[in-house]
């Protein structure tokens, strides 16, 4: 009997494979196609020859833990205890899976806001929990009336994602105040905040749960160096959470991966001394502007992108096909791959939306936009 009977190959794998078959420009899967920082490569080459190839401590390389603590204090004003409140994970996805399986037990309910990243629900199901999926507002802001309406005595966890994949929406100060008001009424609910795109925000500054005293003492915050440093294949993320929650998370983590790739941890630890995360946000802001400007004369409706490296478009002026079929047609007929937004909803809500990833070279973005403008 399968724990995940309705789970098949992810849409990201499906669309990337189709893109490869048809030699299409792949703006579907969320990974950069440009080189990493040369300084990061130089550190990697130098450290590779040193004695850094054995297990690190289970919770992470001490120097990296200290650098993350410094980063968190400087950016969010939160002082964390590196020995009891911080854990290096094999990517944010493993961190999220581990947290859910450590904190959710059979019958617990977990609120997930749709459209949502595809790893949340399977993690809840494997833990024996019950996903309660509710839709965001039409502008992709959180609907707190819906959230409050579905809270029961069995609600264990609420999962939020900010900046938001797939829509690029960023939570406002009032959003957090509304969430705080709800959670004050329900002191046993834990918050899981997926903030892997925290350094990629544009018009509005990202507000982290790390900076919210009312939330952070009952929250698990997930971050990703893969996204922040353009090294998605390194699979290095981290969790920040109070000690009483971290104790349970570490119990699962030690038997899942025990410790994370030692070389990546050593390299990132040294690289954090020189990298400027403000430059990361500026670089992606420029790419977003370039892509949006290049699509201005197309028949696609360009929706706001406040953060992440994703751009949502509406194709209602082009086709009445459902978004999955249109996304496949876009690959086979026009040579550009995107992700249909309906796959991020439990009920496959189809608003004729596609997600493009603009974490690509300028040349790739311009070539893709040229093809899209011909449609």
From TrEMBL:
Keyword annotations for this protein, in alphabetical order, are: Aminotransferase, Pyridoxal phosphate, Transferase
- Which Pfam families does the entry mention? Aminotran_1_2
Q: Which domain of life is it from?
A: Bacteria
Question: Matching CDD domains, A to Z?
Answer: AAT_like
Provide the E.C. number(s) assigned to this enzyme: 2.6.1.88
Question: What's the protein called, per UniProt?
Answer: Methionine aminotransferase
Cofactor(s) recorded in Swiss-Prot or TrEMBL: pyridoxal 5'-phosphate
Which parts of the sequence belong to the Aminotransferase class I/classII large domain? Answer: 24-372
Q: Which InterPro entries match?
A: Aminotransferase_I/II_large (IPR004839), Kynurenine-oxoglutarate_AT (IPR051326), PyrdxlP-dep_Trfase (IPR015424), PyrdxlP-dep_Trfase_major (IPR015421), PyrdxlP-dep_Trfase_small (IPR015422)
Q: What's an example of a GO molecular-function annotation for this chain?
A: methionine-oxo-acid transaminase activity
Q: What class of enzyme is it?
A: transferase
